[in-house]
Amino acid sequence: MSQDTQSLDLDAVDAYLRKHLEGYQGPLQATKFTVGQSNPTFLLKTPERNYVLRRKPPGVLLKSAHAVDREFRVQRALANTKVPVARMYLLCEDDSVIGSTFYVMEHLDGRNFFEPTMDGEANETRAAVFDEMNRVLAELHMVDVDKVGLSDFGPPGNYFERQIGRWTKQYRASETGAIADMDDLIDALNRDLPADDGQRTLVHGDYRIDNMMFEKNGTACLGVLDWELSTIGHPYADLAAVIMQWQMPPGKEGRGLAGIDRASLGLQSDQEFIARYCERRGLAGIDDFGFYLAFNFFRMAAIIQGVYKRALDGNASNPERAKKLGQYVPMFAQHGLAALGR
Questions:
Q1: Which of 21, 24, 136, 192 has its CA 20 to 30 A from that of 159?
Q2: What φ, ψ does residue 66 adopt, rounded to 5°?
């Protein structure tokens, strides 16, 4: 039984798939994807077909974190909607198989853009990919959660109030030292919480370009990935998450667009992206957008702090990168405070 995040007990996985996955035939090989910090993910290769296995990391985990069972459920529910997702094959909640819960899904044979600049692509391609991101996001927020069986996928009440409370607890549980700006941001978000406007939709929770798979020779999205933070909540959290990512520095670390001449690359501005989203959803506009942006900076800081703490505890999927990420927590807190001042 595998007890680390870097490898799999292939014999155990092979035996389980032979028994439970229709059409599966070995022999089996596995390669761990280097991207992703939360749930270790592996490419499973067989002579006939490739699959993807995503698992909880073993060991003691924060409550409600690494919810691969929720990932499986939401993607299966979206199978017949306009939101592209990979096909879900099976969920195994028996920890005795490989040491933690895992699920197996379709391997999407496409391309992934790690950075929003999409270096080397034509301006027309960049513009089309951004518009596809916008379309899929709007479609996600127009999914009828009752119709797809997800009405109970998140509790009722003010989503932002609930999320601020949840991530404050997660942050405190993984805190490794006092960060004054983070404390100030938590206080400010609670103070400036907007009134609930009644919008209640499915939200992804980490919507960005590198969590999407696109056609190899086109710009259509084949599937949105990494649904661990999905829930029933407020759609502006997802929209602001996209804008938050773009405020980061460009390059492999920040993966943002700060300082980039977007027009010269065919990329939409923040305002254009928001306006197109509102048009697709029939909205007149969005008030208090700075709050939603600040919320995302806060949540990402809390997530990164958790990743950093797991690295210190020896339980991170990618320990070296996790320790580097931990250095960005104060920066995210500062960006959050700045966003509230918009």
A1: 136
A2: 60, 45
Structural domains in the chain? 10-106 (3.30.200.20), 123-340 (3.90.1200.10)
Cα 65 to its chain centre, rounded Å, is 13
Edge to edge, the sheet with strand 102-106 lists: 29-32, 41-45, 50-55, 102-106, 88-92
pLDDT in tens, 244-280: 999 999 988 788 999 999 999 999 999 999 999 999 9
Do the beta carbons of residue 37 and residue 321 sit within 8 Å? yes
- CA neighbor of 229 nearest in space, from 299, 290, 319, 161: 299
Question: What is the predicted pLDDT for the residue at 52?
Answer: 96
Q: What values do phi and psi take at 201, rounded to 5?
A: -130, 170
pLDDT digits (tens, 9 = 90+) for 8-61: 899 999 999 999 999 999 899 999 987 655 688 999 999 999 999 999 876 544
Across 235-274, b (16+ Cβ under 10 Å) vs e yields bbbbbbbbbbbbbbebeeebbbbeeeebeebbbbebeebb
pTM value surpassing 0.85: yes
Q: How many CA atoms lie within 13 A of 170 on its CB side?
A: 24
